[in-house]
Amino acid sequence: MASKIFVRPISIAFNAFRNYSSSSKLVDVSINDKTGIATVTMQRPPVNSLNYELLIELNGAFQDLGSKKIKGAILTSSLKTIFSAGLDILEMYKPKPERANAFWTSLQDTWITIFNTPYPTVAAINGHSPAGGCLLSLACEYRVMVNNYTIGLNETKLGIVAPFWFVASMKNTISNRESELALTSGRLYKTDEAFKVGLVDETAENKEDALAKAEKFFSRFDAVNPIARFLTKQELRGKIVKVGRKTFIYKIFRKFQICMMTRI
Ligand SMILES: CCCCCCCCCC/C=C\CC(=O)SCCNC(=O)CCNC(=O)[C@H](O)C(C)(C)COP(=O)(O)OP(=O)(O)OC[C@H]1O[C@@H](n2cnc3c(N)ncnc32)[C@H](O)[C@@H]1OP(=O)(O)O
Question: What superkingdom does the record give (predicted)?
Fold first, then answer.
């Protein structure tokens, strides 16, 4: 684990990013060769619900970007009014245990990858972003959200308990008090409300405005050593990942969830 952490930022310094573009079915990745900014676009209509295949592609996209010399990556959606509707409900309906296990693992791996990237990340939230959609944006370092949409961890409203790494991601962004109020009530915030509590960092008029503001965020690091930056990010986020990845409680929790899912 430690070697992975220390090798990555050094290796990215030796890789070029120029003229890179790749598009799979569910995720499009492009890198602007002038700015060095990557854009990762989810494109799974109708609502970018997170199924196993989308998660695997997302995880792969963010991992691959770790080997390119990019300035930062923006996560956004190709859909007009939805960033992501969260986990695909169909993945949770009477799944086979193997599929359920693979699904949960892919969700957690994707969260860890995005939460831990050596390069800066921004979610340009250009539509509704409930539950797992909110989680993806929380994994990024900065959130810009288009006006008049909703975002939040609404699991309790669905009768579901948010895993503690969902909760930890929220608490990494807004206060413990606000997290408690939000999670226990399953609150979905409108864009302006989310901005007021710090769940999003900036609001935007439309997707173009959100992308422009996201790009501007990366210039904060123009005069910052990327390795020092990444190690500092790890110092701040490492404990959350460690707890999420390793604890006995997590394994029990996952078994319990899969058990619940396969019985419904
Ligand atoms: C259940 C077992 C529990 C066991 C324990 C599990 C523990 C889990 C821990 C983590 C928990 C949860 C994380 C999650 O992410 S759960 C998913 C939460 N998502 C939501 O609550 C969002 C629901 N969707 C909406 O609010 C709206 O659809 C929208 C995103 C605001 C879009 O609205 P819209 O009016 O533009 O579109 P709409 O007509 O509603 O939907 C279009 C079609 O998309 C389908 N759909 C919507 N959301 C999902 C989804 N999450 N998964 C799969 N499919 C989805 C919707 O059914 C429509 O389909 P169709 O056109 O009717 O066929």
Answer: Eukaryota
Active site residue 155: yes
Structure tokens at 30: 């492009």
Global pTM value? 0.89
CA 199 to chain centre: 13
- What's the rounded Cα separation, in Å, for the pair 199 and 190? 10
Q: How far is CA 18 from CA 27, 31, 115, 126, in A?
A: 19, 7, 25, 27
Check pocket membership of 88 for ligand 1, CB cut-off 6 A.
yes
88 Cα–ligand 1 center, Å: 6
Could you report the predicted ipTM of this complex, rounded to two decimals?
Answer: 0.95
pLDDT tens string 116-156: 999 999 999 999 999 999 999 999 999 999 999 999 999 99
Report the 10 Å Cβ neighbour count for 1.
Answer: 9
Give the residue ranges of DSSP H helices in 73-122. Answer: 97-115
225 is an active site residue? no
